[in-house]
Structure formats: C-alpha cells, structure tokens
Design brief:
Elements (H helix, E strand, L loop, with lengths): L7 E5 L3 E5 L12 E5 L2 E6 L13 E5 L12 H7 L11 H7 L8 H4 L11 E3 L5 H4 L9 E4 L3 H7 L20 E3 L38 E3 L2 E6 L6 E5 L8 E8 L2 E5 L7 H4 L8 E2 L5 E2 L5 H16 L8 E5 L4 H6 L10
Parallel strand pairs: 5-6, 6-7, 7-8, 13-16
Antiparallel strand pairs: 1-4, 2-3, 4-5, 9-10, 10-11, 11-12, 12-13, 14-15
C-alpha cells in the first residue's frame, strides 16, 4: 500500500462585504446587516509537479480569490450590486495576504520579503464559482492555471437567464489560454431547467499546467457525494461538484492528516446556522411575481447541504474521521481562527 499523501491548508483574507440577514436566513432581523469575510485558501501539495521552479517543494494552489482590489474594475451592473453590500473592504486582498501573512505586524514586509509571491509562486487557482466576491483579481497570478466548474466560461460570456444576465459578469475575467473547465458532470443537476450554461472544451492551444494525472480526471461517487474528482490522483485533494448556488459551483475536500479533512464549502450557504440546521435558506421576492433565494436552485442547494451534513456526521472516510467545514463568509470562524491563517495552517 502506498503511503498516504496529505496537503496543508491555510486561510487567507480576501476582503469583506456586508450582507443583509433577511436575504440569507429565515426568521431574520429585517434591519440586521453583518460585515463578513470572503475567505480564500492556500492549499500546498507536497510536490513541485506543476511548478517550473525545481527548487520549490510544493505545488501551491488557491481556492477562491475573494474581492477585487480595485472596485472600479467591476462592470457597471456589478458595481450597482456591490453598492448594496457596503461597507466593502479590499485590503488585504488575497495577493496581499499571501505576501504579508496574518502576522505582518511583527515585522515590516520590506524587511523580510514576501512570504509568497503571488506572481511567481502560485501554480493553480480553483474558483468555487464566479460571483464578484470570489473572482478577485486573476491578473495577480500570471503563472497560474485556472480551473473552474463546467459551464463557467459560457456563464461569463453569455450569462444564464434573466436573474443572471451577462452584464453581471466579465467575459474577459479569466485568461482563456490558461483556464480549464472540469469535465461535465454526467448527471445534469438542474434537470430540464433553462439557461444552464454549456461546457467549454479546453482548446488545443492551451497553456494550462495541470497535475500529470489530470488527463484521467473523472467524476465518481465518494462518501455520499455523487460526483467527486481526485485532483492530484493521490486522494489528497478532492473537487466536489456542489450544485445549487451558481452554475459550476464546486467545493474542495482536503486531506490534512491521517483521519483529518477540511471541507471548503464556498457559498453552499452564507451563514453557519443554516449548515447546523438552526436556520433555513431565506426566500424573497424575485421581482417577477415569484420568490427566489440567493441560490440559482434552492432545492438543489438544500440537497447539497444535506450531503455535507451527512458527510460530516458519518464515518464514510473511515472510523474516527474528523471533518472541519469552513464556508467562505463565516465571520465567527475567522475571528476564532486567526492563528490558522497563512503562514499558519488549519
């Protein structure tokens, strides 16, 4: 039996935004607004297999990029939406968090140099989805390959129906020659729903740099999840198809110890009380005579949350397995776990 491979995971600040509680959870205070983080994560795999730097002993991967450093670079429609999420903060953003680390007050950056250079030392960026508060500033990572859920590139170009028009996205957001979509999920999560974006195949001229076993990527069931992809091919990092919030939404499951996993849940929910079952997903007027939630498909989003709960409370990965779930906008988790931000680890 081959030796188990583990990754390290560190949280990163990627800016903050403010959410009105009534749009996200049931039985909410209609006046309450909470300023929450948009977390990014650094995942380090113990091999230089996708890096051109032979002196480096890890593949450095980012999950989500948070909020753009320059708010003015969002489209007009995006800025109109962002105006409803104020206050928004962008310092530190993901790139600054990589350079400074959480303990930047101990020594000035120019005295010790950056902890990680985002322009040179990030190999791969996986985006949970392409909403404005997760897409960050991709140009900060010119050496990276970008990996996104199936349908994402079509979504960026054409939108997905009246609730997700093209003007809410930037068509040129991701470098096309360095971006790859994960394979289409065999079972369409959205049934016969209209406006589901189409898969974009990787062009022959691609400049993407992926793990050697990427050509064998395939969705398989694992631990109650219908579609899971073994990213490095060694069971250290799994991409989990996590439908419901936005087309192409994915999560990561990182193996950080013999019986320890970290589940990075993106926007499966926006409040930890929903995951704990204390609250439910809020519904509100969609402006067209019906109701909607912050998810493209509320029922599908609830099924994804049910699978996460079952996974966390079960022993599908072996007896005694511990799973820690971290959602992108969990402000309580951020405040209680500052020591686990880069250069610390989860």
């Amino acid at each position: 039996m081959s030796q188990a491979v583990f990754v390290t995971v560190s949280a990163l600040d990627g800016g903050h935004l403010t959410l009105p509680e009534r749009l996200f959870v049931t039985d909410a205070d209609p006046e309450k607004r909470a300023t929450v983080p948009s977390l990014s994560f650094l995942v380090q795999h113990p091999s230089p297999q996708t890096s051109t730097d032979s002196g480096r002993k890890s593949t450095n991967l980012l999950f989500d990029l948070g909020v753009k450093r320059d708010i003015e670079s969002y489209t007009g429609a995006q800025q109109a939406h962002i105006a409803q999420r104020q206050p928004v903060t962008t310092d530190p953003d993901c790139a600054a968090s990589l350079r400074r680390g959480v303990a930047s007050n101990r020594i000035e950056e120019h005295d010790r140099g950056p902890l990680l250079d985002p322009a040179k030392e990030i190999d791969i960026v996986i985006l949970s989805h392409v909403h404005w508060d997760h897409i960050g500033t991709p140009s900060d990572f010119p050496n990276a390959t970008f990996a996104v859920g199936s349908g994402t590139l079509d979504l960026l170009k054409n939108g997905a129906g009246p609730l997700y028009p093209a003007e809410l996205f930037n068509d040129d957001e991701l470098p096309r020659s360095c971006t790859v979509e994960f394979p289409p999920v065999p079972r369409n999560n959205y049934g016969a729903a209209l406006h589901v974006p189409k898969h974009t195949a990787t062009p022959l001229s691609t400049q993407t740099k992926l793990p050697p076993l990427a050509q064998e990527w395939a969705w398989r069931p694992l631990a109650g999840f219908p579609a899971v992809l073994d990213f490095f091919g060694d069971e250290s990092l799994f991409v989990i198809d996590s439908p419901g919030h936005l087309y192409g939404h994915v999560n990561l499951l990182a193996r950080v110890g013999e019986r320890r996993y970290v589940y990075l849940g993106g926007d499966c929910c926006h409040d930890p009380r929903i995951l704990r079952g204390e609250k439910d997903i809020a519904l509100y007027d969609n402006g067209r005579g019906g109701v909607r939630s912050v998810h493209v498909d509320t029922g599908t989003a609830k099924r994804t949350l049910d699978r996460i709960r079952s996974f966390v409370h079960g022993e599908s990965m072996g007896e005694g397995t511990e799973v820690e779930v971290v959602m992108a906008h969990d402000g309580v988790w951020r405040e209680q776990n500052r020591h686990r931000f880069w250069p610390g680890g989860i």
